[in-house]
Amino acid sequence: MITALGSRLSMPVPDMIALIANWDSLAEEARAATGNDHAVGDVELLAPVQRPGKIFGLGMNYADHVAEAAMPMPEDQIWFTKAVTSVNGPHAPVELPKASALLDYEAELVFIIGKRCRHVSADQAAGVIFGYCAGNDFSVRDWQLKTSQYVLGKSFDTHAPFGPWIVTPDEIDPAALPIRSTVNGEVRQSSNTRHFIFDPAAQIAHLSQAMTLEPGDVIFTGTPGGVGAAMKPPSFLKAGDIVRVEIDGIGAIENRVVNEAG
């Protein structure tokens, strides 16, 4: 069941970013809120943060994915951005774009920044994470790889679904989460976040040297091996395919691929 949280808080909270930014004041009220207002099956779950200020993704962050891409182990973190307009719901359709047929999936742990911060040490980083989601960093491979900059290939509309909700850090251990993806029920990726090359603390410490991180910013933490582009022969997604990402302790998102609308 789902509780209509906004009506049970002592201050106006127009959106998720406002809730995150005021979490220190509202956490106790939010956790005490009760009332079964809607059955989960009766509502459409949207992306937990509809309009994040920033979306960043980390490339080559699992050793098995580095190996399948035939790339050297990264000494530095490889970051790219995804356009805010790529945000999509956890069960919403994902578009096969008119511009390319090389659409691929990437199962990822996603975390949401909870506090405005800069120059955060790795030891401090856990304190600025609001929570975790499952995500899929859909990628248009020819657009991604035709230049040294990944941004366009990662930024097509609908290509950043995440959710199905935000799980707060007290509920899970992000360093030991099994993660899987399936396409039409076939397991394609199966790994564990303990195989990160750079964990979320290292990611925050690195990013926050360059920029201020703000409540609601969304970070995709990298994908394990098993992507379609690395299969022999490569296997890209087509209209009608159903792609599911599951992370133990968080839940699952599932998206059907559809042709881009006219």
From TrEMBL:
The keyword Hydrolase applies. InterPro entries: FAH (IPR051121), Fumarylacetoacetase-like_C (IPR011234), Fumarylacetoacetase_C_sf (IPR036663). It holds the Pfam family FAA_hydrolase. GO terms for biological process: carboxylic acid metabolic process. It comes from the Bacteria. The keyword Metal-binding applies. Residues 54-258 form the Fumarylacetoacetase-like C-terminal domain. GO terms for molecular function: hydrolase activity; isomerase activity; metal ion binding. Keywords: Hydrolase, Metal-binding. Belongs to the FAH family. PANTHER family: FUMARYLACETOACETATE HYDROLASE DOMAIN-CONTAINING PROTEIN 2A, FUMARYLACETOACETATE HYDROLASE DOMAIN-CONTAINING PROTEIN 2A-RELATED. This is Fumarylacetoacetate hydrolase family protein. It comes from Sphingobium phenoxybenzoativorans.
